[in-house]
Amino acid sequence: MEGFSVPVEGWDFSWFRDRGTEQRPPWGYATLIDERMSAASRALDLQTGGGEVLAGISKPPPVLEATEGWPPNVALARRRLAPIGGEVVVVDEDADLPFGDASFDLIVSRHPVTVRWHEVARVLSPGGTYLSQQIGAGEKRELREFMVGPRPVPDARRPDRVVEAASAAGLDVVDLRTDTQRVEFFDVAAVIVFLRKVIWHVPDLSVEKYRDKLFELHNKIEMEGPFVTYSKRFLIEARKPPWQAR
User: Fold this and answer.
1) What is the pTM of this model?
2) Which of 7, 75, 155, 229 could lock 142 by a disulfide, CB 3.0 to 4.6 Å apart?
3) Looking at the 3D structure of the chain, how many domains does it have?
């Protein structure tokens, strides 16, 4: 099947042009990051992927670090971020951050798999900001249930639970916005490539195991038109109190 031969390193989704569409949240994450980075002095991008978003900023801060744990993405990110002075550190998404206390006045993260809130609070300087666009509960539920059947929606991705976790780490949540976006897949190859990139939807995806479901999906698209599902996104901004040492 075509979708199993397409490279899936990084978070560049340009391959999907003419094969699928996804609406974007109204707040414009890339623009927000560009604005914040231009005013920062020491910034960190957690789980940067291939560095796609960070590489687009117009005015890098004097100190710019990024973390990434997947080796193919590390190589991409280093190539992309070197021209703007960005250093990429290999860090697993569940690991402690290899930075000193109060190292950064700005931390950003787009679609983190996990957030170590106490680590974020530790490396933020007093008065510093964490700004992140995250994936909400029920993300592309229609597609996941078509492939693997009904599954419980994880509470951990509910925005209110995320706010609780940030607050428990000593951060003040100053902004929270949510949005739902329509997603369309025009052929089964687009679905396969998406599921290979975003592996947590169907972790055991393979031709052998899912051949019947993929042919069923192919026929459904041929007969009914694009497969429609929905993305869930939220934007969270949290600040470390100016008086808080850690």
Assistant:
1) 0.89
2) 229
3) 1
